[in-house]
Write a structure and sequence with these properties.
alpha+beta, Glutaredoxin, seven-stranded mixed sheet, 6 helices, globular
């Protein structure tokens, strides 16, 4: 499992590109995690699934609401990770007014979740293998803070905790 002092593992996440621009078509866009994290301070939080109750009512909205405060304290970007595809993450981001505040990163196959060591087996509940709820602060690709939630909890991965840790 990823921990403080570790470098983010190599891998690709997918972000839904809403606007066509030179070199970027509308639709899913691969994001090389290590290349995108280089030279930046990033608040990353992960959760079991888009449109799920705690994730939609508390986790993502908190980071959307605190985005300006986090950026004022030196955070360059905020990333939301989930084992969902880029289409779902894009739709959820639109619904939650995350554009320009939180980058919605899909890990549809769960490969990056595995690389982080943060799998959450929800097969018995009909949700497959998902991501554990967590947050971390990453500076130039290295984890400087890491907060992992206990099963069914939402106490340490929220935006307010991250704001105190920046």
């Amino acid at each position: 499992m990823i921990k403080v002092g570790d470098t983010l593992p190599a891998g690709t996440l997918y972000e839904f590109n809403e606007v066509e621009s030179e070199g970027c078509a509308i639709g899913p866009r691969p994001v090389d995690v290590q290349a995108e994290a280089a030279g930046k301070t990033i608040a990353i939080f992960g959760l079991p699934g888009a449109f799920t109750p705690t994730c939609s009512a508390k986790h993502l909205p908190g980071y959307v609401q605190q985005s300006a405060a986090l950026k004022a304290k030196g955070v360059d970007e905020i990333w939301c990770l989930s084992v969902n595809d880029a289409f779902v993450m894009g739709a959820w981001g639109r619904e939650q007014a995350a554009q320009g505040k939180v980058r919605m990163m899909g890990d549809g196959s769960g490969l990056y979740t595995q690389a982080l060591g943060l799998e959450l087996d929800l097969v018995a509940r009909g949700m497959g293998v998902r991501m554990q709820r967590f947050s971390m602060l990453v500076k130039d690709g290295k984890v400087t803070q890491f907060n992992l939630e206990g099963p069914g909890k939402f106490e340490v991965s929220d935006a307010e905790t991250m704001l105190k840790q920046v």
